[in-house]
Design goal:
It is a single chain. The protein is an alpha/beta fold. It folds into 2 domains: 4-67, OB fold (Dihydrolipoamide Acetyltransferase, E2P) (Beta Barrel), CATH 2.40.50; 98-323. The chain contains 9 helices and 17 strands. Strands 11-10-9-12-8-13-16-17 form an 8-stranded parallel sheet, with helices on both faces. The longest helix is centred in the last third of the chain and has 16 residues, at 308-323.
Length: 326
């Protein structure tokens, strides 16, 4: 059941396009004005408090559920009839790209970098470079709102991502698509040079082989391949993670490979390749730190100096995809 409480907005700390960080009765909270409407100091609100009550590390804040002061007379997007979050208490209609008519049958070799963790997105984008038009496609498996990602905001400011697409249950993208296939085809139709596909921040995880959000990119790999694209998987590799299942080549990557089959992988030169990755493309990643300078690099609280191979491996995937553009 949903855990709600009523309160008053006591502070507004940050405003971004699609996201507001605030406090409700002194507790940290986030709001999505594109869903629940504008919010300001003193508003009477309902907030979802369950993540805080469960002491979730990546969800240590409340989420505004409804604004009782100024959010009860909102109107939907004109002409929209396909629902986001259908049949839930937060369902609302958004225009989807598929509604604009027939789409292409092939991606025509479009490179698609697939990240099973959101913390891989920044180095992978740096690997693709600043001279290319890149569409960011977010699939379910972590946070659903695209606007929640500070990383995507930074990539847009840097020119490494041009636009964003929210697939399925994901929300708050520049474009909405019902399926991953439709999102990739839309990007090809719009003339993008590459797609960067990932789950949102805060991966869903259960410590089991198949119960984690990273498996969403297995579908992305299979879809890109079936539609004539060039999928590249960013492997999750760590020498700093204290959990055995994520040390070295993570069991998350192994699970994706089991489902997705043979897929291109970028592997950092200078790092010994584990069994099963003999066909990986070895990439010179000596410039990854310079390419990522100024970008948010953080994985489970570890930065570039704490877990360098994690970020270098994601950068390598971007470089492999870049080769398809040469």
């Amino acid at each position: 059941m949903v855990s709600l409480r009523r309160g008053s907005v006591t502070a507004v700390t940050e405003r971004h396009d699609g996201l507001v960080r605030l406090e409700v009765d002194g507790r940290p909270c986030i709001a999505y004005p594109g869903i629940t409407g504008p919010v300001t100091l003193g508003d009477d609100v309902l907030v979802n408090v369950q993540a805080v009550e469960l002491e979730l590390g990546s969800g240590g804040f409340d989420v505004l559920y409804a604004n009782l002061t100024r959010g009860l007379e909102l109107e939907g997007e004109p002409g929209a009839h396909v629902m986001k979050l259908p049949y839930t208490p937060l369902q609302y209609a958004v225009r989807h790209a598929e509604e604009n008519g027939a789409q292409l049958d092939s991606l025509g070799g479009l490179p698609v970098v697939c990240c099973s963790l959101h913390s891989q997105v920044a180095p992978a984008a740096a690997g693709l470079g600043e001279e290319k038009r890149v569409a960011y496609v977010q699939v379910p498996g972590g946070a659903l709102p695209v606007s929640f990602s500070d990383t995507v905001r930074a990539l847009r400011e840097r020119g490494l991502v041009e636009t964003t697409v929210a697939v399925g249950a994901c929300v708050q993208g520049d474009v909405a698509c019902v399926s991953t296939a439709a999102a990739f085809v839309w990007a090809a139709e719009q003339g993008f040079d590459a797609v960067l596909c990932s789950i949102g921040p805060g991966i869903v995880g259960t410590a089991s082989p198949w119960g984690h959000g990273g498996l969403s990119v297995a579908e992305a790999v299979l879809t890109a391949r079936a539609l004539g694209g060039a999928p590249v998987l960013a492997v999750r590799y760590s020498e700093g993670d204290p959990r055995e299942r994520h040390r070295g080549l993570s069991h998350h990557t192994q699970a994706v490979l089991t489902l997705a089959g043979d897929v291109e992988i970028g592997w950092p030169e200078g790092l010994e390749s584990p069994d099963g990755l003999e066909r990986a493309n070895v990439v010179d990643v000596s410039g990854w730190r310079d390419a990522c300078a100024g970008l948010p690099l953080s994985h489970m609280g570890r930065g570039a100096d704490d877990d360098p191979w994690f970020f270098a491996a994601a950068y390598a995937a971007g470089r492999v995809a870049f080769r398809h553009l040469a």
